[in-house]
Specification:
Keywords: Antibiotic resistance, Cell membrane, Membrane, Transmembrane, Transmembrane helix, Transport. By secondary structure, the protein is an all-alpha fold. 75% of the residues lie in helices and 0% in strands.
């Protein structure tokens, strides 16, 4: 009788996360995000990496070469380049996030999570929350240095904050791209090379450093439809740093905010769905 009663109690007690409702799911997600942030405090290499790459480009191109750049509309090159530098926070974060996920799958950490009554999706969402915090700190540092070397927003505090909101949405979307990369590829060396390729291709085939009209003619349509170009243009316009002709012509140049919203929504949807499916397959759920 006692055994039956005890068994009954074990069966009716709801597991945390899986059937514990929204509160349990949120608690599990935040706990995993806190775990990642604790590791970051002990080993801050990721924060240094994500911050230093944009800073090097800001100093090497935005400061040292600013007198050599001719931007239409008498826009200071520091103003022009700042949005292009800021998006590198998101692009640089792809590789480290992908490597982190791949390492978790390789070293058996995820196997330990499987023995706990939590939803598998909380593992990935918790990582994105912690990595978004890293991105926000990095973005703050980069823009502070940009302010020190001459960058100024010109459209008031609300639009300036809206520009940062667009950048954070881009950073979060790229984190899910990194998670998809990590769950699909799993090989750390291959991920490292792919992350660097994403950074170089998407930033240089855009209007990050020069106006679209300054690129070779056959590359201009590619740059115009590059989602990074739309994010940069939207941020520049919110900050009041956008010179005429910096995005070329056509629909993306005329409606950068709409193109940014559509492309980020599609990319985020595909990345989240693909990441969850690949992750569940990898852990055998």
């Amino acid at each position: 009788m006692t055994t039956a009663t005890a068994g009954s109690h074990r069966q009716t007690a709801p597991p945390r996360g899986g059937t514990g409702g929204l509160r349990g799911y949120t608690g599990d997600t935040l706990a995993l995000a806190g775990r990642h942030l604790t590791h970051l405090r002990r080993s801050p290499g990721r924060l240094v990496l994500v911050t230093m790459n944009p800073l090097v480009m800001l100093i090497a191109i935005g400061y040292l070469f600013r007198d050599s750049m001719n931007i239409p509309g008498n826009v200071a090159y520091e103003d022009f380049i700042m949005a292009g530098i800021a998006i590198q926070v998101g692009l640089t974060g792809v590789g480290p996030t992908a490597i982190g996920v791949a390492m978790d799958l390789r070293n058996g950490l995820v196997d330990r999570f499987r023995s706990m009554p939590i939803a598998s999706s909380t593992v990935l969402i918790g990582r994105t929350f912690s990595d978004l915090f890293v991105g926000a700190v990095s973005l703050t540092v980069v823009c502070s240095v940009g302010f020190a070397v001459g960058w100024r927003p010109h459209n008031g505090p609300l639009q300036t904050l809206a520009g940062f909101g667009v950048l954070l949405a881009f950073v979060y979307t790229m984190l899910w791209v990194g998670i998809l990369l990590g769950t699909v590829m799993k090989n750390v060396e291959a991920i490292d090379g792919s992350g660097a390729l994403v950074l170089i291709v998407l930033s240089f085939l855009s209007n990050a450093y020069v106006v679209v009209s300054g690129l070779p003619g056959w590359l201009q349509p590619v740059a115009e439809w590059n989602p990074v170009t739309s994010v940069i243009t939207t941020t520049r316009r919110l900050w009041g740093n956008d010179p005429a002709g910096s995005t070329g012509s056509g629909f993306p140049a005329d409606h950068p905010g709409l193109v940014t919203a559509i492309m980020l929504a599609l990319l985020l949807t595909v990345s989240v769905a693909g990441s969850l499916r690949s992750f569940r397959r990898a852990v055998g759920n």
